Amino acid sequence: MNIAQRTELYRRLAAVNPNPRSDLVYGNHFELLVAVVLSAQATDVSVNKATAKLWPVANTPQAILDLGEARLRDYIKTIGLYQTKAKNVIKLCEQLLALHGGVVPNDRKALEALPGVGSKTASVVLNVAFGVPTIAVDTHIFRVANRTGLAAEKTADKVAAKLEKVTPKEYLLNAHHWLILHGRYLCKARTPECWRCSITEFCKYKAKTPAAGEVAVKPLKGKPVAKKKAAAR
After folding, report:
1. Please, what is the Cα angle at 180 between 178 and 181, to 5 degrees?
2. CA contacts within 13 A on the Cβ side of 76
């Protein structure tokens, strides 16, 4: 994919969603950090359901520590890996207070030193909270990057590095959100909604899903095309 194609791809994603936002619900940098930690191997929907009850009770590092690990587990027990996540959040709060005065740091190294915070979580926080043009690659972005050819790589780290390199600067800040939302709601793993995709002409994915009223057929060369269903007689 050349620079003109990449630019047009992002231009179309921006036209569809001019002001992309995270699906996670948060009111401050600390809530964002904890929500992203909780979202690992879990859906944003499940995290939002849990934090809707947690935030009114405890939404600062000290308030979480006052709540305690056992009660924190009760609030997040509907989220995958909640026991490990509760431990990490407690330790994260302790470290924020001890080293950063309870403030979420605007620094990758400091963020990644926090319990439960890896490179992807740090990238999300830097991007969303502090406006740093980073791209955190999850399963949705990994899929879109490979299907379109934006960054056809075999690991998330390589996809992230490639995307940050090839994404036009004017689109880099919001690229993370455009790609993740596109993958979550349109370019889905099993049944991508190709018929209403604004960037389908740039997509290298062969098994495109046809629109209702069409069936996918494979010609001799193996590339699927869509044909209209015959009208019932």
Report:
1. 65
2. 35
138 is a catalytic site residue: yes
Domain ranges in the chain? 1-190, 194-228
The two three-digit tokens of residue 185, written as one number: 């709601």
Distance CA 85, CA 124 (A): 17
Can you tell me which residue has the tokens 């980073």?
A: 134
Which residue among the candidates 138, 158, 162, 188 is catalytic per the annotation?
Answer: 138
Residue type, 170: E
Paired sense of beta strands 225-228 and 214-217, if any: antiparallel
Q: What is the pLDDT of residues 111-137, one digit of tens each?
A: 999 999 999 999 999 999 999 999 999
Write out pLDDT tens, residues 23-36. Answer: 999 999 999 999 99
- 216 SS3 class: strand
Query: Domain 1-190 class?
Result: mainly alpha
Residues 6+ apart with CB under 8 A from 85: 37, 38, 40, 76, 79, 116
